């Protein structure tokens, strides 16, 4: 008997396919420790929502105990539960949805919100102070395992991860390659410029366990 897929599930799968196609044409960067991008499990193959482990859009492992993604939908909750998260670093200014907040409360996950506006160029202004505060949360092992996310997991999340990579002493070309891997055709020159100029000197004491 053919399984019926609800419209909401179809929409989620369509978005996942769109993201995969958008990212598929880019060549993988070459450095020692590329992030691990997790394959997506179709809901229809799992038989029911509860049994499905569906990662959020643009989900990947950044480092041990550090993950990145786009905004998690309710269909992603079983997958997030499997990560045993302690914290979520949320980079958007909008209030966290009620369903997501309830999920965090049920599983003892702490929300750290840093409201960074997601405007398009040329009106983008990246707040240096919020990026630094977000990195302090990310690098505190007491908050790990944790998930960093914004809306699509591209620009705001990409900038935070890019600045983290500078702290980990990645060369700038590898930092840019990783950012472009997730941003695809929507690379923002202001993001690249911000990461290039970001001063990591007063954060280096936080990175002993990650370099």
Can you lay out the helices and strands and say which pair or pack?
Blueprint: H1 7-24, E1 36-37, H2 43-46, E2 60-63, E3 66-69, H3 77-82, E4 87-90, H4 98-106, E5 110-113, H5 128-139, E6 146-149, H6 155-167, H7 172-183, H8 189-197
Parallel strand pairs: 3-6, 4-5, 4-6
Antiparallel strand pairs: 1-2, 2-3
Helix pairs in contact: 6-7, 6-8
Strand content range: 5-15%
Report Rg. 17 Å
Overall geometry:
globular
Query: Main β-sheet: number of strands, strand sense, barrel status?
Result: 6 strands, mixed
- Provide the domain count: 1
The CATH topology is what? Protein-Tyrosine Phosphatase, Chain A
- Number of separate helices: 8
User: Helical amount among residues, as a percent range?
Assistant: 25-40%
Question: How far apart lie the N and C ends?
Answer: 52 Å
**Which architecture would the CATH scheme give at its second level?**
Alpha-Beta Complex
Rounded average pLDDT? 80
Order of helices and strands: HEHEEHEHEHEHHH
- Helix-and-strand structural type: alpha/beta
- Fourth CATH level, the homologous superfamily: Protein tyrosine phosphatase superfamily
**Uncertain spans:** 1-8, 19-32, 39-50
Describe this structure in a few short sentences.
With 211 residues, the protein is an alpha/beta fold. The chain has a 6-stranded mixed beta sheet, sandwiched between helices.
Outline the structure in words:
The protein is an alpha/beta fold and 211 residues long. The protein has one domain: Protein tyrosine phosphatase superfamily (Protein-Tyrosine Phosphatase, Chain A). The chain is built from 8 helices and 6 strands. A 6-stranded mixed beta sheet has the order 1-2-3-6-4-5, sandwiched between helices. β4, α4 and β5 form a beta-alpha-beta unit. α6 runs antiparallel to α7 and α6 packs parallel to α8. It comes from Brachypodium distachyon (Purple false brome). This is diphosphoinositol-polyphosphate diphosphatase. One of its GO terms (molecular function) is diphosphoinositol-polyphosphate diphosphatase activity. Keywords: Hydrolase.
């Amino acid at each position: 008997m053919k399984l019926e897929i609800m419209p909401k599930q179809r929409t989620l799968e369509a978005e996942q396919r769109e993201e995969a196609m958008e990212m598929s044409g880019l060549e993988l960067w070459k450095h020692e420790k590329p992030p691990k991008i997790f394959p997506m499990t179709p809901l229809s193959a799992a038989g029911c929502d509860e049994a499905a482990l569906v990662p959020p859009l643009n989900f990947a492992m950044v480092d041990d105990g550090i993950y990145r993604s786009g905004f998690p939908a309710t269909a992603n909750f079983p997958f997030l539960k499997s990560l045993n998260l302690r914290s979520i670093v949320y980079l958007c200014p909008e209030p966290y949805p009620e369903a997501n907040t309830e999920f965090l409360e049920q599983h003892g996950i702490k929300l750290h919100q840093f409201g960074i506006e997601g405007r398009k160029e040329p009106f983008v202004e990246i707040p240096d102070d919020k990026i630094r505060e977000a990195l302090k949360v990310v690098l505190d092992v007491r908050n790990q395992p944790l998930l960093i996310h914004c809306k699509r997991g591209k620009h705001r999340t990409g900038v935070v991860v890019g600045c983290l990579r500078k702290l980990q002493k990645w060369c700038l070309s590898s930092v840019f390659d990783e950012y472009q891997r997730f941003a695809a055709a929507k690379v923002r020159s202001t993001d690249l410029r911000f990461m290039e100029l970001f001063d990591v000197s007063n954060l280096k004491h936080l990175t002993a366990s990650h370099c």
